[in-house]
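[Automated response] Your request has been received and processed.

Submitted sequence:
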Amino acid sequence: MLLVGLQFQIPLPGLTALSHECENGSQQGSTSTPTTCFISDTESPVTPITSATSQSLSWSSEVLLKVATDPSWDYGTPYVPILQPDGTLRPPPISFSGYGPFGGQFVPESIMGFLHELTSTFEAAVSDPAFWAEYATLQRSQHTPLTRASKLSDPATAATIWLKREDLNDYGSHKTRNIIGQLLLARRMGRTEVVTDCAAAKHGTFTAAMCARLGLQCVVVMGADDACAQEEDVLDMKMLGAKIVTARTPSGMGSLRAAITEALRYSVRNYETAYYLMGGPVGPSPLPTVTRTFQALLGEEVAAQMHREVGCQPDAVVTAVGSGCGAVGLFRPFLHSPAVRLVGVEGVHAAALTEGSIGVLQGSRTLMLQNEDGQILDSNSISPDMNISTVGPEVAYWKSVGRVEIKTATDTDALDGFKSLFDHEGIVSGLDSSHAVSAALRLARDLGPGKNVVLMVTGGDSIGMHDGRRLGV
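Generated structure:
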């Protein structure tokens, strides 16, 4: 039995991954591929990586040592980078700590075998240089550029804003590092089918494309409302060979929450052949640890690139927070450096970190939006990736100990941020990262000239483009 996150990790028979949500069964449609199903309302060093967008890295051994061993932040095991100063990837030490009272495994017994198998496969894989060698050949878009936003803020009165250009990844997804790593794990486990939850279709499309390349069957589970709003992207996923499953919770929400719930249910039903690729750092252990391990390469790139550009760490790092996939990647290497401010921005009507309380949902103990009776409250956001009632357990822990600063943004703020990046930098961003633009601008003004702020930018999606045109962008 895994002892991870919680001090009492007891897998409870019959305790579902849905927590307080209803489990009334579901209807599954045709199993041909590609197709659409509807779930009813009843619920050693390796080769350096190069690419067209790569930037050369220059990271001194002194800087590397400081990032890895700075003792001033003690909320977990000191961080040791995977990305080395010479641009190679090396096996990291494995740690399942860093969750405090959050995390754990609250799942049906039927999925425990999969979780144990995943844990052992994960530990063996990330300790194997051959795994990282293959990973390097598949992570084609690493490293995405870190560019100065010369027109977004006035350098005479504000800090310099740097943009981590995740929009230049394939399909504009900032989850590529996690997706590739987990697909390789799935293949090592002998699984032939990969099921993943999806909100903004760019992540599902990238997963479908990589599954086609690796010879794996792909099942993309989307909230019914999200799928309807992104019909062209859904068609692209089908053309790549993916089977699309749409889901809706009993409360009527056809969003990411419903997609995660149904993806968990699908993986339980098909645990002998299916691998569940969690889209964010949520779910039962070890899923959050697997996600953060691969996503941390995002923050490592930023650290190396900042030292190349300005010779020091950033003064602040800013990202939008939905389930927390961007945050666990971007923030992780800077946790032990208290001089670096870590700022996450939630949607004001999907603010689990700001308005939530502790509970169990979808397999782990974390912060979530719920009423006094423990019933999960609906969330709402213009961005599919931000529209979720919960957040990953590690981000919840960082918030509880005060290591991250959490802000909120309205849909109007997100559209203003979308317009600002488009007008000033010529970037069509995703509406998730657009939530964080105004917070980055305010922070830059507060810090003043001579300081540096990093803002993560994700790729645009059809929903974002539609709303941008509607408002005259």
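Summary generated for your ticket: The radius of gyration is 20 Å. The chain has a mean pLDDT of 84.
If you did not submit this request, please reply to this message.
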